[in-house]
Amino acid sequence: MEIQQNVRIGKKTRIQSHSFICELVTIGESCFIAHGVMFINDTFSSGGAAGGDKNLWKPTQIGNHVAIGSNATILPVSICDHAVIGAGAVVTKDISEPGFYAGNPAKLLRKITH
To answer: What pLDDT is attached to residue 48?
Structure first.
């Protein structure tokens, strides 16, 4: 697992091996990040890699009580509290409603009600 600088991780959050958490990622409390999850902060918005230009990087915000399955890829997005991201999913857009998400791109499969 690699966790880069300036990452924030909340209390009671567990992160399994082979995950990569890049700069500008904030993960809330009581989350679970499974094996091999990749967080991305460079969207190649200038037509190529940012080449270390942090001004081109974008942040990711993960809420509380979020579970992310093995080998999911999380682009710079915001994920609300109580979301479940399936194994292998690719999250390309903000998730603002609690529920189960899967696929590429990740889509809502079922809402979660409290």
So the answer is: 87
The tokens for 73 are 């890829």
DSSP state of 76: S
Q: Environment class of residue 23 by beta-carbon count within 10 Å: exposed (0-12), middle (13-18) or buried (19+)?
A: middle
pLDDT digits (tens, 9 = 90+) for 46-81: 888 888 788 999 999 999 999 999 999 999 999 999
Q: What angle do CA 3, 103, 10 make, to 5 degrees?
A: 30
pTM (2 decimals)? 0.94
How far, in Å, CA of 33 to CA of 22, rounded?
14
Q: Which residue has the tokens 């992310």?
A: 68
Cα→Cα distances 41→12, 48, 76, 80, Å:
24, 13, 6, 18
Who contacts 81 (Cβ-Cβ below 8 Å, separation ≥6)?
28, 63, 64, 65, 66, 98
Structure-token match 């959050």, residue found:
13
